[in-house]
Amino acid sequence: MARKEPAADAANPGRLKQIALTYKMTRRADKKIGLVLAAVGIVTLGVFLAIGFLIGHPIYLGILGLLLAFLASAIVFGRRAERAAFGQMEGQPGAAAAVLDNIGRGWSTTPAVAMNRSQDVVHRAVGKAGIVLVAEGNPNRVKTLLAAEKKKMNRIVADVPVHDILVGTGEGQVELKKVRTTMLKLPRVLTGPQVTATNDRLKAMGDLMSNMPLPKGPMPKGMKLPKGGPKAR
């Protein structure tokens, strides 16, 4: 027991430090965060105290209100911190991949399944809603990249629905902070085993593509591939 207490004591300062850093980060983007959290806590506690006095149990309702006030403030803080983080990531390369990494259980994500020289990129997520392709970059360029990847997915797994999301703030695009919500609202059409089978097929195709023998260096001028393509040895 004596050994566990120092470990717990060491963990608590780490958690408190993390909360403090998160608050500072959030406050840079949300100047009113302190007032909002205080208002939520005071109003919640006040409501339960008022009910407690009306029914003759102010102490019990006061304790319950204090706990719920803390819980409500924590929930509001978490949401506003998440919003502030998304605001700072907006427009940065790889921001959509970071969102997909935290989408939750039931989803398997693969970042940067397609990319061009301008660093427009398409990420892939597989879940019970099917395959979701999330693209970020210049809208005019990335639409072509997204369409090509979607066509490839339809050839590989024709029996699985393929959705596409273009991250951005323009017309027909989905804001970064709404990507997760948009994906979770998609209808679930696959079972767990079907999701696993789809992932296996996509991984197998990826392995085949990565193991395909390709010549190293640029192709010599005037050299043509045989009509039948490369033959297996």
UniProtKB/TrEMBL annotation:
Residues 210-233 are annotated as: Disordered. This is DUF4191 domain-containing protein. Residues 219-233 have a biased composition (Low complexity). InterPro entries: DUF4191. Keywords: Membrane, Transmembrane, Transmembrane helix. The chain crosses the membrane at residues 33-53, 59-78. Pfam families: DUF4191.
